[in-house]
Amino acid sequence: MPKASSSRSLNGLTPLPRATLSEQVAKQLAARITDGEWKPGEKLPSEAELCKAFNVGRSSLREALTSLAFIGLIHVRAGGGSYVAEKPSAYFTSAWLKTGQLTSAEAFAQFVEARLFLESEVVSLCAERITAEELEELDLLLEKMKQALHDAVEFSNLDLEFHLCVGRGAKNSVLNNILSSIREQSMELISKSLLLDEGMEYSLRTHIKIVEALRQHKPLKAREAMRIHLQLFQRGYNVLFDSKEMSKA
């Protein structure tokens, strides 16, 4: 059984810059978890307590908790709080960075940044130009992704095809060629991010939001949905790299 929420003090936390609020909250929580302040299976303080301790709103806190769940440090239970993972995260125990082209924190950061810039604009064009047939194709991909939630290889293939389909929907051959040209690196990024079931589940939810915006033909909403989707990866990796460096110290 998970232990009760810790009553230890959360005072003395460092003030956080607004620009990187959720990421900094995630990093501070990750540091405390990796230092053993909360043990495996132990429930974290309530959202209200954490919001007060960090002086942040619920949306920033929830983004931070999502990042920690994404890399396997915690499990978030709907209506039941957040718990430290019972077992070490696969991200910390596997050699996931030792193969491929994306083998350093800098390489990951640059590639995710490039995708964030490019795909946010591509999906905006797609929202204006996507056809009913292409929306049906995306719906079919979402359904297949739901069926593949525990098959990381298949889910990765479907995830990549989803993004390429969005690229085709933008009806811009130059942008589509750029997306296709980075297919290998995209596949590597996606596959490395899906070592955990949580990664697939969060990814599916954000893909659903993207399709909802495309179906409404709302470019700004589609751009924001894509940014949220890719920023989940970006924040998760930033917290992960920071945590791995701390664990070496």
List the defining traits of the structure above:
single chain, mainly alpha, Arc Repressor Mutant, subunit A, Four Helix Bundle (Hemerythrin (Met), subunit A), two-stranded antiparallel ribbon, globular
Can you give a write-up of this model?
The protein has 249 residues and is mainly alpha-helical. It folds into two domains: 18-87, Arc Repressor Mutant, subunit A (Orthogonal Bundle), CATH 1.10.10; 94-248, Up-down Bundle (Four Helix Bundle (Hemerythrin (Met), subunit A)), CATH 1.20.120. It is built from eleven helices and two strands, in the order αααββαααααααα. A two-stranded antiparallel sheet has the order 1-2. Helix 5 runs parallel beside helix 10, helix 5 packs antiparallel against helix 11 and helix 6 packs antiparallel against helix 7 (152-169). The chain is globular.
Shape: globular
Annotated CATH architecture of the largest domain: Up-down Bundle
Tally of DSSP helical segments: 11
Numbering strands along the chain, what is their spatial order in the largest sheet?
1-2
* Quaternary assembly: single chain
Beta-strand fraction estimate: under 5%
CATH superfamily of the largest domain: GntR ligand-binding domain-like
The overall number of domains is 2
Q: Give the end-to-end Cα distance, rounded to a whole number of Å.
A: 32 Å
CATH structural class of the largest domain: Mainly Alpha
At the fold tier of CATH, the topology name of the largest domain is Four Helix Bundle (Hemerythrin (Met), subunit A)
Mean pLDDT: 81
Number of strands: 2
Note the main sheet: 2 strands, antiparallel
Give the SSE string.
HHHEEHHHHHHHH
- Give the C-alpha Rg: 19 Å
Q: Low-confidence stretches at least 5 residues in length (pLDDT < 50)?
A: 1-9, 11-19
